[in-house]
Amino acid sequence: MREERNWISDRLASFGDGIALIADGQQSSFNAIGQAMMSWQALLAHQNIACCTVIINGDYSCAMVGAILALYTRHCVVVPLNRSSSERCAAVARTTGASWIIDADHPGDLQALTTQLPTHELVAGLFDRREAGLILLSSGSSGEPKAILLSLERLFAKYRDAPRSRPRTTAAFLLLDHIGGFNTLLHCLFSGSTLVKLDSRDAVSICRQIAEHRIHLLPATPTFLNMLLWGRAYETYDLSSLELVTYGTETMPESTLAALNEVFPAVRFKQTYGMSELGILSTRSESSDSLWIQIATDDVQVKVVDQILWIKTRTAMLGYLNAPSVIDQEGWLCTGDLVETRGDYFRILGRGESLINVGGLKVLPVEVESRLLSLPFVKDAVVWGRKSPVTGQIVAATVVLEGELDTDDAKRQIMLHCQQGLEDFKVPRHIEFVTGRLHSDRFKKIKVASQ
């Protein structure tokens, strides 16, 4: 197995003094990442850290990346956290059964943990096979965060065996403890691309950094891209280097995608698909302005049952450590995403559980949100189901307005606009206005539960 891992050192060395990472004003070459990996390997060997679960706490840095690679070579299960508090680290350690906590910013500060918990059978299986793993935590929006165990062997093999792609300077928009951020890191490391850590994730700062570092690729969320349109910071900075914007993690409103293509005609927009339980799958968008996508790899199987997408892939999770598995005996995972199909292409309509049932008629929140966002004075909107004694539910909308528009006038314009473009049962009957934001720190819309 040690020989099999030499490909990492060889791959990094092949890119030599090329810039692998720009973070906090420092540039780190691929050679520097390789040196950091070897330094961590020596430290881990000295502490006899191998075949165990390790929390690595930090952010994008040469030390953090080197530590992750070194833990992989030591057959460890890696739990990346984003500069979390000691209380958060302790809680995650209890959930994951971690034996060590490592602060990437302070390599000498290795915290050994004692736990009374037996090693989970899925983790023990990895150790028995001398394979490395990755644990990611769900958001916990619907209860205790789920600890998702993936095989690092399979995730790394995807990049080891893939044809080399053209290197692109890439923004690290998603964090390392997110499957999208972890995937971006691996893609950049093993393709010779430069990864740029963002010093801030507001639209103005990101536009500034795209211009400063001549970034080619921006992975983002639809929510952030809508904010980018509203802020108009793109008018202030030179974004001519930008070639590709990928988006995922939530459903893209059609009106937002249309506006993006109008504002950035030279940029290609590509929808990605993935989830922590699956990894990030290779996709192909029908066109830059289309929401229809195709899984673009032969090693992934797709089926649709009752309009819900099911996927079978080698990179799927091994299971949850603290919840029943959602993968059936044949290896199929129910994504919960509602889709429509057209040949080999499919279009994501939203989460199956987010459907609003108005007297037996189904309403997709994203369809109504797209209509609302096409109004020039609607800055953001979340659509949800409100309980009704007559129809079971009615369509409700929480709206953030731009400027100081009178709310009564705004409500009248919204109703008229929706009546002109939506079927009657899809028109919001309850509209509430709020200030502030409707998204999480990860730039993903916060859904409102039925009330």
From TrEMBL:
UniProt organism field: Pseudomonas synxantha
Record InterPro entries: AMP-bd_C, AMP-bd_C_sf, AMP-binding_CS, AMP-dep_synth/lig_dom, ANL_N_sf
Keywords linked to the UniProt accession: Ligase
Family of the protein in this entry: Belongs to the ATP-dependent AMP-binding enzyme family.
GO function terms (MF aspect): CoA-ligase activity
Residue ranges occupied by any AMP-binding enzyme C-terminal domain in the UniProt entry: 367-435
UniProt superkingdom: Bacteria
Signal peptide positions (record): none
Gene3D superfamilies in the cross-refs: 3.30.300.30, N-terminal domain of ligase-like
Protein name: Long-chain fatty acid--CoA ligase
Domain annotation AMP-dependent synthetase/ligase: ranges: 14-320
